[in-house]
User: Fold these one by one.
Assistant:
Number 1:
Amino acid sequence: MTTGRKAPAPGATRATTRATTREDALDRALRALALAKSFLSSYDARDKTLAFAQYATLCASNGAPGKLTSASASIGMSRKPFRIVKPLESAATAARKRASDAPTSAAETIRALGMTCYFAFDHLVWACASGACGTGKEDARGRFQRLSYWGWFFGSASGLFLDTNELNALLDVMREKGFGEDGNAPKTRDGENTSPFVDADEDLDADEREAREREVEALRKRARKVFVGLITNSAQAILALALLEKVKMSKRKIGALGMFLSAVNIASMLPAPAAEAPGKTKTA
């Protein structure tokens, strides 16, 4: 016995699938566009994106005269307006209250002053390029450029010292709490585990488990920030020395290192992706 219902035509099914696929692709494209728009809303993000393009063209040209090298220089100059207030921000950081211990306080001061010099002298390079320095501007521009790179080096080296200290402090906290250990956590005199991370689900109510999870997440965020700082400050210090010709590197390697540094900075600044619309289902 047959029913009166007809099976959908194969062509109609394929058309529906194609329409759904196009709709999903459009939805992903719109979410990617929204993410890019949100990311590029800040001047710092625009600066880092242009930095990636600047170093990419330098890497491709290897410093040889031509269109790519000229493009790299032009892109570098186009970054300057997005950094116009950076010297003031760094100078304000230098004026803040310092840490109590002398080495950390000195490192914080050197980092702030170094980055202030980096941005301030870089702006003077920009002024010379625009013809504001008058006669002998090429000599002045070269001196300002070297002073800018030295400020970048000392600021980054001091930041690396501070990040190393922060990493040591973080490891001390993790060791004290038994984070990541398995059976080697601190014990009480009765031999009980004192770690909130090891066997933490035992004898804990919902509020205590939630508090423990928040503590773990806070440590993870702190660790991610420290590791990004270690990577970027190390790369910046090496890059500054290479640009000062104190470390022998080809222009291609300098460009590759600059691309890596810019990519790390961009990744650390990316906002969280927008969630899919409620009720949206993925197709098989």
Number 2:
Amino acid sequence: MNGISAHWLSPVQAPLASRFYAAEGQKERARRDERIAVLRDADGTIIAAARLSPRGDAWLLRALQVARHCQGQGLARQLMQFVLSQPQPLWCFSLPHLQPFYRSLGFVVPDAAGVPAAIADPFAAYCRTQPLVILYAPGAD
């Protein structure tokens, strides 16, 4: 796809991401305290989004989504490369089958002792409902 560009939404633009998620059948609600990265097509339509929620001195990647009609074109990777270009510690809770994707971007499975409570506590809560792998992007800080 030509004409695709990556952007950070401003806090007042957060509802645009929420509308994108809803159009894709997701219940995600973007919040104004989050950093929200998007890919837009040549017409300015959001075709991918990722939410970064503040967690202490780090960020937690949430809700990486690519529009159904655009999947399979490397857009998740393109958006994540944009996100990872920013200097910040970044964590994510990955479903096991997505771990190779995140590892290919430089995420690693951290030593449990090195996981801050602001990340470990919500991770434990999520793991009660589904199996997840915690990952960290060490090159981002």
Number 3:
Amino acid sequence: MPSATWSAQGRPRLAAFTMVVAVAAILGALLADPALADGWRMLHWLCKPLTTALILLLAWSARPVVSTRYRHRISAGIVCSLLGDVLLMLPQDLFVPGLVAFLLGHLCFLAAFLSDSRFAVRPPWLLASWGYGAVNLWLLWDSIGVSLRVPVIVYVVVLSSMGGQALARAWMFVRRGDAQAGSARRAAVGAVLFMLSDSLLAWNRFHAAIPLSSLWVLSTYYLALWWIARSVQRDDTLIEAGAAQ
């Protein structure tokens, strides 16, 4: 278990290194020759999963934590995302296994957001998230292969449920002036960015190529994981303020 000293001194360096590796992963994807396994491609293959692994380390080493259960569930979700990264990078067409890995990750995130709030605690946020997912699915429906439609529907339902729950949870804690409001806001930002990243990925895959798609998809993806990982850490200043009320 990392010490408090390491958390205070080592985490800023780890965060900075993570950002450098993330930029390298994005540059590798942008500059790689699609037909060759060149140096840029190798840089991307190395740095893409490494960035996710470093974000996992940031989440796991966070101190103090919202709760041990919350940290475990968020960490499990990031592990699933790491598996999805690897599966989608392999030369074989492993889109469905990669989709399943990310689906499991979203279920872990959803379980984390349910650890301290009931499902649909603020229904309008969940309905809005479901609506966003449904509109994207409807617009892309004719472009999605028949064999992929059921997996994609399930994925959209889980992803939008995770996003809606994160938003509802953040709204609840902020309205209450709860000590966990800061953490919940960070989780909600990450969840929304995850929905945006996956929307960009879906439009790029099923509809038409998006210019500089690697930049937009990966930057929103890493920011999503970053903010979700940061939500593991408790805000002591908020806790003290809440206790004084």
